[in-house]
Specification:
With about 475 residues, the protein is α/β, with parallel strands linked by helices. The protein has a domain of about 150 residues: Rossmann fold (3-Layer(aba) Sandwich). Helix content is about 40%, strand content about 15%. A seven-stranded parallel sheet has the order 3-2-1-4-5-6-7, sandwiched between helices. A four-stranded mixed sheet has the order 8-11-9-10, with helices on both faces.
Length: about 475
């Protein structure tokens, strides 16, 4: 029986698409025959909504839009979703895991998706957002709306996956049609959802369940989710490279602190090739990463091996957990983010007047923190320039001692350690070997940092196309 869940209980996974792009993504998943998932489509445009294949449809904002679209205005999309909050909550209540998909930059999806994410958060649902960023040629206005929508989504979802549409141009051939390109983008959602569904629902040699998925994806922020499939010589290494180097995502698994790796293969899946693939992941993620491993034996896979990778926990502030409250009470407390507002830059002007006196303390604190910061295996030297917060006094603690020494000419060459014997000139020769003053050993530790990042990193050869992209574009894998 193992450690799996009772057969009578299966995790409830739903996908909700909002707006034109989100509804199209859901339709493609339905046409792709993804099993075990409940689909919901949401739109302000009633005519477009009725064309979707989902059996669960919600028309939002009837009073505001009168069945028409949001006119590429995110504020209208947000108001429309707020108007239909109770109906949305009723359809997703009791869900274990919810995927929200939308195209960012328009009206309904950009404004409404964060509202759905907030409802799901208040209901305690593990929520993953899968959204697209518009093409650059669509203009700065649409891109700005998209960035605001993405920031709002980050506040409420547990994990967020962003697919930049411009990435489609990098993998498209001369013969790739527009519909084919968007279908490729939707594969990230399709295979991500089906991959997690299989993790939870399919019994395995080493079982993974929803608790494992929650452990890695709850309040994780930006997330990487990929699937690779390969056969023949080096199949495990090829599959894992497909999974961690998706050409449709900006993310990789580098520095991740939480990782799920699930292997699915035939009875010939060997432990050494599993170790080879897992080692590639281990060398890329954080040294203290929480790696959860699962394996499923599927005789129908024959010579193929499929690997699902979910990585999260990159450098990011985790959003505060939602406090229990009713959805009705939450509506007025959420101001619209799409009205142009100056964000809290007010506290900053208060700091400059106070910096004159405490400047030295700040410098001392920062200098004392340098060893810990530099000793990290994944430290970034570029982050050190952030220290000049303490104005011109930063990095000049030694200089201030010299100025004090110049004011008192009687101890011009006497180190601070020997203030008890200022005059005897012969003793100046003893402290003169001031190599001890180099004992802070900051340079030495800096050299340690140059050695520490040596954990072997997998050298990746450019973009590696997943098997579903190779099939559509007729390309062979280069590795």
């Amino acid at each position: 029986m193992g450690f799996g869940m009772d057969n009578d209980h299966f995790a409830t996974i739903k996908v909700i698409g909002i707006g034109g792009g989100g509804c199209n993504a859901v339709d493609r998943m339905i046409n792709g025959d993804v099993q075990g998932i409940e689909f919901i489509t949401v739109n302000t445009d009633n005519q477009a909504l009725m064309r979707t294949n989902s059996s669960n449809r919600i028309q939002i904002g009837e009073k505001i839009t009168r069945g028409l679209g949001a006119g590429a205005n995110p504020e209208i999309g947000e108001k429309a979703a707020n108007e239909s909050k109770d109906e949305i909550a009723q359809l997703i209540r009791g869900t274990d895991m919810l995927f929200i998909t939308a195209g960012m930059g328009g009206g309904t999806g950009t404004g409404g998706a964060p509202v759905i994410a907030q409802i799901a958060r208040e209901l305690g649902i593990l929520t993953v957002g899968v959204v697209t960023r518009p093409f650059r040629f669509e203009g700065s206005r649409r891109m700005q709306n998209a960035e605001r929508g993405i920031r709002e989504m980050e506040k409420y979802v547990d994990s967020l996956i962003v697919v930049p549409n411009d990435k489609l141009l990098e993998i498209a051939t001369e013969d790739t049609t527009l519909d084919e390109a968007f279908t490729l983008a939707d594969q990230v959602l399709k295979y991500g959802v089906s991959g997690i569904s299989d993790l939870v629902a399919v019994p395995g040699l080493i079982n993974l369940d929803l608790a494992d998925v929650r452990r890695v994806m709850t309040q994780a922020g930006v997330c990487h989710m990929g699937i690779g499939r390969a056969s023949g010589e080096g199949r495990a290494a090829n599959a894992i490279r497909q999974a961690i180097n998706s050409p449709l995502l900006d993310t990789t698994i580098d520095g991740a602190r939480g990782v799920i790796i699930n292997f699915t293969g035939g009875r010939d899946m060997r432990i050494r090739e599993v170790d080879e693939a897992a080692s590639i992941v281990r060398d890329a993620v954080s040294p203290d990463a929480d790696i959860i491993f699962g394996a499923v034996i599927d005789p129908e896979m024959e010579d193929d091996i499929m690997i699902t990778v979910i990585a999260s926990g990159f450098d990011r502030e985790i959003a505060p957990s939602a406090q229990p409250r009713t959805t009705a009470a939450a509506a007025p407390s959420r101001p619209s983010p799409f009205a142009a507002k100056a964000q809290p830059a007010e506290p900053q002007p208060e700091k400059p007047p106070e910096q004159t006196a405490p400047a030295k303390k700040q410098v001392d604190e920062e200098v004392s923190e340098i060893p810990d910061f530099l000793s990290s295996a994944f430290s970034r030297p570029q982050e050190q320039p952030a220290r000049p917060q303490s104005n011109s006094t930063g990095f000049h603690t030694v200089g201030t001692q010299q100025e004090a020494a110049e004011e008192d000419q009687t101890r011009t060459f006497v180190p601070s350690y020997h203030n008890q014997q200022p005059r005897p000139a012969p003793e100046k020769a003893a402290p003169a070997p001031q190599p001890p003053q180099a004992r802070p050993q900051e340079p030495a530790r800096g050299s340690e940092t140059a050695e520490e990042p040596e954990p072997k990193r997998e050298k990746r050869s450019g973009r590696i196309l997943p098997w579903f992209l190779q099939d559509n574009n007729g390309r062979s894998q280069d590795s």
